[in-house]
Amino acid sequence: MKVLLATQKPFSAQAVEGIAKIIREGGHSFEVLEKYASEAELIEAVKDVNALIVRSDLVTEAVIKAAPELKIVVRAGAGFDNIDLQAATSAGVVVMNTPGQNANAVAELAIALMIFMVRNQFTPATGTEIAGKTLGIQGFGNVGCLIAAKAAALGMKVKAYDPVRSAEDLRSYGVEPVESLERLYSECNYVSLNVPLLPSTEGLVGDRLLGLMPKGGVLVNTARKEVVNEQGLKKALAERTDLKYATDVAPDNYAQLREEFGLRIYANSKKMGAQTSEANINAGYAAARQIVDFFATGNTKFQVNR
Length: 306
Description:
306 residues; alpha/beta; Rossmann fold; 2 domains; seven-stranded parallel beta sheet; 12 strands; 17% strand
């Protein structure tokens, strides 16, 4: 089988070398397409491939239709909204992600962004400390669990809301479960947003929830930008001059927000959550192993388009 690693934002050289080794030792051929400039280049490259590994690259209906031999796409990371699942399912293509492989990198970034914001983006002004404060975690998956442990180690009280997990389950991680988003936002000095982008989560957080936060509240978003309603965010920041927002992905109106609200808002210039050498290697190797296992045994454990 022919496996293509297609990444506009390349993996580290060490990660690519390891991915290639896993694929070839599994009996498959391996090719790399890095830093491509257009969808047309990707469409040309997938014409005869059987498996595809991507990061945040867009795997559209056009890409899938151009790859008649394609059997599996693996997103090296947790989020998979960059892949057209409906088109993949219609074409009989299995789509997988690699949950948990980037989780520690994202969790560390969430804590770093929190500290960065309460210390006024490291400008010489009086800030605050996170010890003794309450952190709310919205979405208690692989990332949320790790954020909770790190925050507790820094002296924070941690609460969590996750509609899928039971209160008993959340308590087993040493966090206090809350039964609603309203309680989470109203009772926590900081909220870490860690939910996938779904129809039910798009635009979920806006001025209504942000307006419930205690004085000096900070929202940290290491999920998708679309989970936060941009107009609602702007309204909340305008009405509550004590609120702050930090995000791994800039909102579309970031320049306007930055001009209007200054150090109360911050966005990374590019998504940085998984940008560590360790996360690179972990996610890339996991993707390669999943492809090898899929062709050898038919294992679809991490399939997301069932």
